[in-house]
From TrEMBL, chain A:
Pfam families referenced in this protein's UniProt entry, alphabetically: Alpha-E
Identification of the protein by name: DUF403 domain-containing protein
Residues of the DUF403 domain: 1-307
Superkingdom classification of source: Bacteria
Length: 312, 462
């Protein structure tokens, strides 16, 4: 497969996944904003939202106070924010268009239709009237995009590079979601034990029902961390993501990729054989920060080894 | 329709069917087609951030129908014409018999901007230059076909031929049950076969690629479509490189050798070392590998010398010279303004003639006399006098019409036809082509860049 083609496929999948994750995070905040809470707490939640995505500075340059309306606007429809949902879905479609011949008709049509519908929905004002409905739609389109890929594409490198993009992105997002909740400042310390707080976090990764099924017990932050980091059967956990990264890397392996495979395998093994007690003892924030760095490095290595190689 | 306005026999069945359709049903189908084309993304022209800049080519749901005997004649004529044109290009880059015989003046070759001295003496596989030709045809009466233009460089539109057919079969399956429409869907197979047949000598299992200028090119959809349908890579210049006297593409598993390039960009952009140095679309060094016979370009470099409007008037003579046959298809009578007496005739009859720039394309830079204002005619007179050898003139033929959906129902509109002729070890084509239709009443210009539309072309089987 052409390196450029693989590059477009990788980023198409990453951007689709990123849009979904942004929708998930925003939706949870919209939901919790409906609960009785102080204005400070609400503002804190939206500020955290920007922090997770490393968007605080970009937001401050454009907006004054942190309000729900402005944050949503910034993270959904601001074309100048490269992480906004509209920017991600446009980029996903742009990448798909560049390699449309490699995609099945169905996969291309889903990307194209998502892009066309997105504009219609935003113009139609759905985001203001019923944001949750809009976020549901974004998630649904992302599910559809992954599903139609698995349902129609030949299991070849094209799919491998799309899966690599999806799971590197998802690992990054899950780690950020988890980190921000543990990394709140002192003022929010009390809320850490708050049932709604953790329930919301679990819902943002479709983990609420899974938590109940796995633990059959009250919600504790330690178990949430375990579920989202170390459970291989939790589809959005770090371990589950690394399973996929390692598998797909193995499929596309080439003459120069062995070190990348080794680093991915090492990270995978640490999660696979890790214990939550040890992680908490060492410090969750430190562990997650390091994880994010290593995922970032893996993404770069994938690009270097496969996607934009130097001229021979 | 015939000149008298009655329905030609091969349209009768369709006309009877159409009479039974309600306007609402037709409108519904039209909306369905629009939506489907939009969803599939069959668009053309400028592409940008704004969805409004991706345009659909208007699709007309009334097919253009060609009876079997007329197609047989066309096919014979097209094969003959393309065979002769290939021999002509081969000749002018080698022995130049035709110049020495005085059939085509030497200055028409050497002063042609499309003439490539780099091709002089180069052998190409099977001596084929125009592997894919799109010949524009108009019909002026029953079985009376005229060639309007030979497109031998990177003719577009074959994807619309295929997508229009797919759409018609989806919208009106019942019509295909009642008509014996010859299939065209195997075109990509024929094309791949053809491209593989012209691989460099000694290559047993050639790797074929389609080369595009990129996704912002107006015909990008077609490039991607053809690559996908043939199951080959769609590459851009930056995906290729030259090393060790061969062309390679950059893949995720390392460099892979490329043998045949169906290139959809003009000569000028192929190789910055040989042609335009400012172009980033091509592959540095490509020409050297090509000249060594280690990669095939389809179409070959320098084919444009034969599809120019200045060569066009000589094509009947070219056919006679190489094949010793009478041309099956006529040229539209053409006045070459470079000749004094033909210029005089043109100047005296501007209001009746179509005047075209010799190197023009896309329906730009032409005068349609009967539709022009006095001012436009005077402007063109001045241009002709200033540079007579830059223009040709042709009578406005009584071009055939085809019933077409317009705002107020069905009305006749002018059409032309672009069949696609493939040349390799053999000459082949699918029965049909792209029918373009001028949507404005009275207009003779069918180019999509001028608001023309397309319709499905049905060649009926006996």
């Amino acid at each position: 497969m052409l390196s450029r083609t693989a590059d477009h496929l990788f980023w198409m999948a990453r951007y689709t996944e990123r849009a979904e994750n942004t929708a998930r995070m925003l939706d949870v905040n919209v939901q919790t904003a409906l609960l009785p809470q102080s204005e400070d707490a609400a503002r804190q939640a939206w500020r955290a939202m920007l922090g997770i995505s490393e968007l605080q500075q970009a937001y401050d340059r454009k907006h004054g106070a942190v309000t729900q309306r402005d944050v949503i606007e910034f993270m959904v429809c601001d074309p100048d924010n490269p992480s906004s949902i509209i920017a991600c879905l446009t980029a996903a479609r742009e990448n798909a268009r560049a390699v449309r011949g490699t995609l099945t008709t169905e996969v291309w049509e889903v990307q194209n239709q998502t892009y066309l519908d997105l504009r219609r929905r935003l113009h139609g004002g759905q985001l203001r009237q019923d944001p949750s409905q809009f976020f549901e739609w974004v998630k649904y389109r992302s599910h559809l995009s992954r599903g139609v890929t698995l349902g129609t594409m030949l299991r070849d490198e094209a799919v491998n590079f799309m899966r690599l993009g999806t799971f590197l992105e998802r690992a990054d997002n899950t780690a950020r979601i988890l980190d921000v909740k543990f990394h709140d400042d002192e003022a929010a310390a009390e809320t850490r034990r708050d049932f709604y707080y953790w329930a919301a976090l679990l819902r943002s990764v479709s983990g609420f029902e899974i938590y109940r099924k796995v633990y059959r017990d009250v919600i504790t932050p330690e178990r949430v961390a375990e579920l989202l980091m170390l459970r291989a059967d939790m589809p959005r956990s770090l371990l589950a993501c690394m399973d996929e990264v390692v598998d797909n890397l193995g499929e596309v392996r080439n003459d120069v990729s062995s070190e990348t495979e080794r680093l991915a395998g090492q990270l995978h093994a640490e999660l696979r054989f890790g214990r939550i007690d040890d992680i908490l003892q060492r410090g969750l924030h430190d562990t997650l920060t390091e994880f994010l760095q290593r995922i970032y490095e893996l993404g770069n290595r994938v690009s270097r080894d496969f996607l934009v190689p130097l001229a021979a | 329709m015939t000149a008298g306005g009655s329905v030609r026999p091969h349209y009768r069945e369709f006309a009877a069917w159409l009479a039974q359709q309600t306007p609402e049903a037709i409108e519904r189908k039209r909306a369905e087609a629009d939506l489907a084309f939009r969803r599939v993304g069959i668009t053309f022209a400028v592409y940008g951030d704004n969805a409004g800049t991706e345009r659909l080519i208007p699709f007309d749901m009334i097919p253009r129908i060609i009876p079997a005997d007329e197609w047989a004649l066309l096919q014979r004529g097209l094969e003959q014409r393309v065979r002769a044109l290939n021999m002509f290009i081969d000749d002018i880059y080698h022995e130049q018999h035709i110049i020495r015989a005085g059939v085509v003046p030497a200055e028409q070759i050497y002063r042609n901007a499309q003439y490539r001295p780099e091709m002089q003496g180069i052998r190409v596989p099977s001596d084929i230059y125009a592997h894919i030709a799109g010949i524009d045809i108009v019909r002026a009466g029953a079985g009376e076909f005229y060639v309007l233009e030979d497109n031998l460089r990177v003719p577009s539109g074959v994807s619309y031929m295929l997508e229009d057919r797919k759409m018609m079969m989806r919208l009106y399956p019942e019509l295909f049950a009642s008509h014996k429409v010859a299939p065209v869907e195997h075109y990509p197979d024929l094309l791949l076969d053809n491209l593989r047949s012209v691989a460099p000598v000694g290559v047993m299992d050639p790797t074929v690629v389609v080369m595009t200028p990129g996704m912002y090119n107006s015909a990008y959809f077609e490039h991607a479509f053809l690559a996908q349908q043939m199951g080959v890579e769609l590459v851009e210049g930056k995906d290729l490189f030259v090393n060790n006297n061969a062309v390679w593409m950059r893949t995720t598993r390392g460099p892979r050798r490329v043998d045949v390039i169906y290139r959809r960009l003009d000569d000028d952009f192929l190789d910055p070392l040989a042609f335009r140095a400012d172009s980033a679309l091509g592959v540095p060094g490509l020409l050297s590998v090509y000249r060594a016979g280690r990669v095939t370009l389809a179409n070959a470099i320098g084919t444009g010398v034969a599809d120019d409007k200045s060569i066009y008037p000589y094509v009947p003579a070219i056919i006679k010279f190489y094949l010793s046959e009478e041309p099956v298809l006529n040229n539209v009578p053409t006045y070459q303004c470079r000749h004094r007496n033909e210029l005089d005739y043109t100047l005296a009859n501007l209001a009746q003639l179509v005047v075209k720039e010799v190197h023009g394309a896309g329906g730009y830079g032409m005068l349609v006399g009967p539709a022009a204002s006095q001012q436009e005619i005077e402007d063109f007179r001045a241009r002709l006098l200033a540079r007579p050898d830059g223009y040709i003139a042709q009578p406005t033929l009584a071009l055939s019409n085809c019933p077409t959906f317009v705002e107020n129902g069905v009305a006749p509109r002018h059409i032309d036809l672009r069949p696609f002729v493939l040349s390799g070890k053999t000459v082949s084509m699918v029965p049909g082509g792209l029918t373009r239709v001028a949507l404005r009443e009275g207009s003779l210009v069918v180019n999509s860049s001028q608001g023309g539309g397309t319709k499905d072309t049905w060649v009926l089987e006996q």
